[in-house]
Amino acid sequence: MPVYLDHAATTPMLPAARAALIAALDLVGNPSSIHTHGQSAKRILEEAREVIAGSLGCDPIEIVLTSGGTESVNLGVKGLFWARDTSVVSRKRILVPRGEHHATIDAAEWLVAHEGAVIEWLPIDELGRISIDSVAQSLREHDDIALLTMLWANNEVGTVQPVAEIVALAAERGVPVHVDAVAAYGHLPVSLRESGAAAISVSAHKVGGPLGMGALTLARTAVVEPLLHGGGQQRNVRSGTQDAPAAVAFAAAVEHPPAPLTHLRDALIAGVRSAVPDAVLRGDPRDRLDNNAHFTFPGCAGDSLLFMLDSAGISASTGSACQAGIPEASHVLLGMGLSEAEARGALRFTLGHDSTAADIEALLSVLPDAVARARRAGYSNRAV
């Protein structure tokens, strides 16, 4: 039976979310309409918003529903940049750690190309953690910082970031912080109120909700310029007819969170180390996401190993970017100080609510042979 170990990419809908979505699809009415049908749609939409807000430690008015994590990140990064205060200083600098998701990197680089922004890349350490000292130094040395954007937990290697400490440092200098919590949401407590961030991005399909639905939590005191214009919905931040059925399913998913996966993750890590003794666990060995086990396999190319495992019915991820069909070493691993050859041997296993001990046993039964075959292929040393 096929085994799915790529839940960080997307996880199956929870039964409660699926049932809620199917039931809500029979709903008729635009939530912005003032007639009875429209107000019924608005009622269930706002009830869902309350539940989602409760899961993110914020008020319902601070929830901006989006089409997913990528839109939320773009709205957070671009919106905060466009709304920056330039009355005294021309604030064009964006602080971006080197291990960020490409949604953040590409949004920031778009601002460089089209809006005259300047990116200051912040280093990460060998565990993939942002250097607090480098953040503090940048905040001290520059008065032109528009915003700082960061991950709550690294989506590739699973390392949890010091969010509260960094947000507090930025607040002392009046710098708003956007946090990409897409990977962390559902696995760690994520709270807008407790973090002090200006904005936090999340996605429904990562927590057992539907595809095409996400949220940006936006503090009452934060101001963003919208990406979309038209109807003035959601505090004039995100115009467009709101997807009430998807919001209801999103709320159902966060109302029924799965049990923590720490025990299963630890069994997976121990099993891989036993099956392939020279495999190297990447990311913080303790302070990491409860569903993430990220390894590099010396002498292997991750894409070759991925193919071998896929042929055996195991789905995993290399965790690396692929631009225009050309495999690239993970920028996260390179930022952590790995060589290109080491970084190309990466594979990420991520667990979800339907993962079992049998899934891990199935992986471990085929992993040693898959690694041996990938090493014989010898792709890891071939120039790309």
TrEMBL record:
Keywords linked to the UniProt accession: Iron, Iron-sulfur, Metal-binding, Pyridoxal phosphate, Transferase
Required cofactor names: pyridoxal 5'-phosphate
Keyword set includes Acetylation: no
Keyword Transferase: yes
Cited Pfam families: Aminotran_5 (PF00266)
Domain of life, source organism: Bacteria
Family matches, as Gene3D superfamilies: 1.10.260.50, Aspartate Aminotransferase, domain 1, Type I PLP-dependent aspartate aminotransferase-like (Major domain)
Domain (Aminotransferase class V): residue spans on this chain: 3-363
Catalysed reactions, as listed in the record: (sulfur carrier)-H + L-cysteine = (sulfur carrier)-SH + L-alanine
MF GO annotations: cysteine desulfurase activity; iron-sulfur cluster binding; metal ion binding
Similarity remark: Belongs to the class-V pyridoxal-phosphate-dependent aminotransferase family. NifS/IscS subfamily.
PANTHER family to which the protein is assigned, alphabetical: CYSTEINE DESULFURASE, CYSTEINE DESULFURYLASE FAMILY MEMBER
Name of the protein: Cysteine desulfurase
Organism: Homoserinimonas hongtaonis
